[in-house]
Every structure is written in structure tokens, then in C-alpha cells.
Amino acid sequence: MKGFYRSKYTTPAGEVRYAAVTQFEATDARRAFPCWDEPAIKATFDISLVVPKDRVALSNMNVIDRKPYPDDENLVEVKFARTPVMSTYLVAFVVGEYDFVETRSKDGVCVRVYTPVGKAEQGKFALEVAAKTLPFYKDYFNVPYPLPKIDLIAIADFAAGAMENWGLVTYRETALLIDPKNSCSSSRQWVALVVGHELAHQWFGNLVTMEWWTHLWLNEGFASWIEYLCVDHCFPEYDIWTQFVSADYTRAQELDALDNSHPIEVSVGHPSEVDEIFDAISYSKGASVIRMLHDYIGDKDFKKGMNMYLTKFQQKNAATEDLWESLENASGKPIAAVMNTWTKQMGFPLIYVEAEQVEDDRVLRLSQKKFCASGPYVGEDCPQWMVPITISTSEDPNQAKLKILMDKPEMNVVLKNIKPDQWVKLNLGTVGFYRTQYSSAMLESLLPGIRDLSLPPVDRLGLQNDLFSLARAGIISTVEVLKVMEAFVNEPNYTVWSDLSCNLGILSTLLSHTDFYDEIQDFVIDVFSPIGERLGWDPKPGEGHLDALLRGLVLGKLGKAGHKATLEEARRRFKEHVEGKQILSADLRSPVYLTVLKHGDGTTLDIMLKLHKQADMQEEKNRIERVLGATLSPELIEKVLTFALSEEVRPQDTVSVIGGVAGGSKQGRKAAWKFIKDNWEELYNRYQGGFLISRLIKLSVEGFAVDKMAGEVKAFFESHPAPSAERTIQQCCENILLNAAWLKRDAESIQQYLLQRKASLPSV
């Protein structure tokens, strides 16, 4: 799926055909035409395509001429306008059969969304988002969109989520198409974010391009941050900034605490090293430090600096330092000095804080050390960061009482006029890219704020996530965190639940290696059933986007853990769905499918595969593919793995089927790893030199928790090298060893706690 390649699709009549499409980033324009294929060697492009006359032909620019081809009456020659000065990796052309919907943005730009034939309706949601987004960016950057048109097009076989080719953005079908009846809320949100991300690149990346791949993070980190700003503008009801914390911020911190992480800026010498940096550090840590920087500078000066940067470097190339210089000029703050500590060294700090009441003031003692997934930092020269720190108190939990820049290993801070009974919290809004460890007295005073919801949602989330990571690193005990998790009984916020759910999922996977796995399932049921009962199965009047997401999350969690009432209701609704009596709403499909499969048999799996075959929408096919791994018996697991490599599954989706098996159960994990080893040649040929190979490896081995598995994984890849996944493999081995250490350290006390808890609960 790289260079100029063919993409297979099926016509409405059921005939298999091919479209011709491009994917050039990072280094594959050279596969399509001879060129200086580096981002800083920019040129204008005059493109003409000779194509069958019944096919749609698109490129970056608008068509200026279309004439019959002299040698063959079935062909036409389509000529496109000259492009602005641009990099090779952003050139694109597509030839195929498509329908489209179009509109004009209020700035007069012609916007079209191209869909598979007969599905133009499904392009309307993305069209609306794109038409709102272009003017938003034009105003934000104060620079007009530089081309006469923009096309967004859905491609059947597509490795990434989307690609920001200038004026012709390509997408996976699931990142662009929305069917009002059959698309779930999370798909809408995903489409809005991806459209926001790719359109931001039209300025940041396309108009001004990074000098070299070392600065890729600038492109991706920036677009991954501003996509949220854009969605928040278009859909304030999504509460998207809280979701940023669980989707990007915590994901980046998880990876960046490893010894095998890497700095945001990485020197790149070979094309395989470029593929390797399209990871959570470039995207999610990049976005997180830009969010912290935006907060530190303030929106007004940030916008001013962005405009200076884009104006100065338009149609040229820039490096990270150039952006810092523009933002420094706009804000008068030491941007380069602060940001170099975040982009040029890997990792992030753990801030330890203790407090003392001195008359009417609260004196805080802060110290910073690098946060390591393996426990307290040991070693000589500990790296230091310049950390923008905000401090809030119970007097006004939504407002910073004090903002400071911590630029040394230790400092004391005095908060004036704080009563002894008021709590003090660091990192308001979970914006600073650091973790906080409170003295036990400070932590005690914060916990009631979780129960009574006086701490804002994103602060409740951050507090819980920090504690979970500290336990994972062995700095505090896991049992302490389980106790805190129980304080979330009254929690109404979707994103807080989503993060809690992820962490319980990690713990659950860890404990699948023990003989008390059932006990942790009971714990999950206890934590999630009160909110499950409050929500019920059916949407109530006046509910919105977040309620739908929460209901799907909670029912899926309860169903997977084997909650009896949820399982019975899921089976009943599934039966009605399959019989066509009462079709499941899109938001309930994933949790129901997952629940019936996990507690089902061969017949259930056959019905699911039949639903997959009948599904007309790629979203529904993916939804089914992702849950197939929940099935438990060894022969059914084999059947799912074989299905993953069959013609029924698009090549970019095989990875999530195998990953689903590995994440579904202990038996699945073993089977998926064996399957990858047995089919390595085919898988490697399919995905080599792209990020899908890294994703496949990560999903399939990171759940192991036995030391010797790390050795086995390492040995396998020594004899079967995958250069673009090298760092991922090291990270996976490190994670396996960390899991094993965690289990050795805490398994016994967790088991004790769960058993005592069970004994003290009233029996139902």
C-alpha cells in the first residue's frame, strides 16, 4: 500500500475491480516517478493523467483540460493546473470510480468528498466538518487556504488513517464515511478528528514543511493537537479536550517512561528510520507538549507566533528552532530554553510534592526526577526539565492559584492564605507533561474530591492515572490504587470512566497469568455495575454524544466480565438483531457482539462471520473484526486467525483481528504469537517498512508477563529482522519484563485484597 498502487474494491453489482491510488509519505514518490524525494527539495508539478474515459481522475490541483487521447478512443488525457512550490511526498493522484458531494466553504473554496459509488450520502458528515474547518484554520492562522479546491476521498485499501496530500486528502473508508443509521458515535468523533488533523496539515506541513524527517514531530504533533481545537470548535458537546488526556497524553506517558523510548526529535539517516518515528512519541507526546506550550504562552500570543511562522516560511521549509523563535518573539518568554528540555531529551519528570501549614500559608516542597516505568530513577546525572507548573486549591478547583516555571531540581513555593482544611493540587487540567506523587497527607485530602466530584473531571482522571502508573512502576502498591478506583462510584464523566476502564483492562490482562483472574472480573463488575444500572440499555430523552459513548463502554465492560444480567440482555438483543426483528443501534453493536462472542460457541462465531460477509459498510466489518478475538476455545481462535489472512479482510485490517485475538484471552495471546511466527513471511511481505508491522508486533506480544517470553521475542526477531519495527520490539521486550516484575511484586497482595473484599461484602 505504498507508492502508486492498486486498491481493490467491489462494485454495487458485486464485481471486483481496481482503483489506482498513491501514498508517497515518507519516501515512496520515487516509486512512481524519478524525483529528488526529500521534503526540502520543493518544486511545482504539472500533472496530466491518461485514463479510461469512464473513470474519475483526481490530483492535487483542479482540472484545466480534458481531451480525447489520440491513440485510443477509450482513453482521455486529463490535465491539472500547476501546483504551488511543494514537497514530493505530498503529490497525489487517484483514478477510479467514485461519487461525490460538494459545497463551498464561506471563503469560497470548493470542497468535495468522494465516496464509493452509491454512497455519496455517507460523505455528508465529513463535508460539513471540512466546510466548517477550513474557515476556522484560516482565521486561526490568519493565512488563507492556498489552493482553489480541496478533495477528501475514501480509499478501500489504505495503510494509514489518512494522508494530507495537498488539495487531495486520502482516507481509509472508516475515517471518512458516516452512515446516519449505521455509524456509531465514536466513528463520528473519529471522522471529525481525522478531518481536522489532515486539514490542519494543509497549512502546517504543506504550506510550511519540515526541513528534514527529524522534525516530523512538528508536523504530526501540531496537527494532533490542533485537531482537538478544531473539533472543540465544531462540536463543543464532545468535551473533546478531556478525551485528549486519555487518548493522547496518557498514551504518550506510558511509552515515554520506558528506557527504550526516544526523544521527540530523532536524527534520521535511512528510510526505514523514518517509518519508525510515526509513533506515539511524534504524535501524542508531540501534541501534549504543544498543548502545554499553548497553555504556557496563552492563546493570543500563540496565534500571533503561528502567523509569523507561517508567513515567514510559506512555500519553504522550517526546523523546530524556527517555530520556537516565532513563538518567543510573539510572547517574550524563553520558549526555546523550555522546549528543548521536552523535545531533545526523552522522558518526562515525576514531581514529588509535600506540604506544610505555616500559620495562614501553605508551604510546598517540590522536587523533580525522571519518571521511569521500572521504579525510582537510579543513576548519576538525572535529566532535568523546565516545567510549567500550575497549582489549584479547593477554594476554586477550576482556576490556577499560582503558576510557576520549575527550572531546578528542587524548589519551595509559598501559597498565601490557605486554610488548613483546603486541599492543594498540582497540574490543573492535567496539562503539564509530568506525573505527580503527593505525600500521603496531601493525597488523603484530595480523595474526597473524587467522591463528591468537586475536583474537575480531567483532574480526577489525571490523579487516578498518575497513581496507577506509580503502582505499575512499583513506587506505591497496586492495592492503594484499587481502593482509589472504588471511590469513582458516583463518576458521571465518560472520559474518566474510559481511562479507568483502560487501566483495569491492563490489570486484568496482567492477572490473566494468575489463578485469581475471576476475582478481578468480580471487582470490575462491582466498580461498573452501579453506573450500568443508572444508564440502562436504551438512550433516554435529552441524552447526547457522551452518554452514548459511556453506555457502550460500560455495557461492554460488564458483558466481557460476565455480569449475568448484562450477558442475558445482550444475548436477547443479539438474537432479535440477527433475526431482523429489532436491529441493534450502532452504539450498542460493539458491546453486544463482544459479550455474546466471549460467552458464546462455534454457532455464535459463524453468525458473526455471516454478519461480516453481509455488511455493506466498512465500519461494520471493522467493528466485527475487532471483537472476533473475544472467542475462547482453541479451535475457534484458530478459525479467527485463519480468517484474518483471508480475502474477506482488507490488508490494513488483518492487524486488528490478530491483535484482538492476542488481547482477548491468555489462550489467544499464545495462539496469536504462534500464528505470527508461522506466517511471518507473508505478514512481513505485506507490511514491511510501514508502521503496520510495528503495530502488529506490539498488539500481539505486549500482554506477556513471563521473563522468558521477552527472550523468545528478542530471539525470534534477531533471526527474522524487521528494521522499521526495531524500537517497537525493544519496547515490547521491556514491557514484558516490567509486567513480570509487577506480577512478582504485587500479585499476592492484590489477591489478598480481592479475597478480603469479597468476604466483607454482603452476599447477593
TrEMBL record:
Keywords: Aminopeptidase, Hydrolase, Metal-binding, Metalloprotease, Protease, Zinc. It comes from the Eukaryota. InterPro entries: Aminopeptidase_N-like_N, Aminopeptidase_N-like_N_sf, ERAP1-like_C_dom, M1_APN-typ, Peptidase_M1, Peptidase_M1_aminopeptidases, Peptidase_M1_dom, Peptidase_M4/M1_CTD_sf. Residues 1-90 form the Aminopeptidase N-like N-terminal domain. GO terms for molecular function: aminopeptidase activity. Its cofactor is Zn(2+). Belongs to the peptidase M1 family. This is Aminopeptidase. The lineage of its organism: Eukaryota, Metazoa, Chordata, Craniata, Vertebrata.
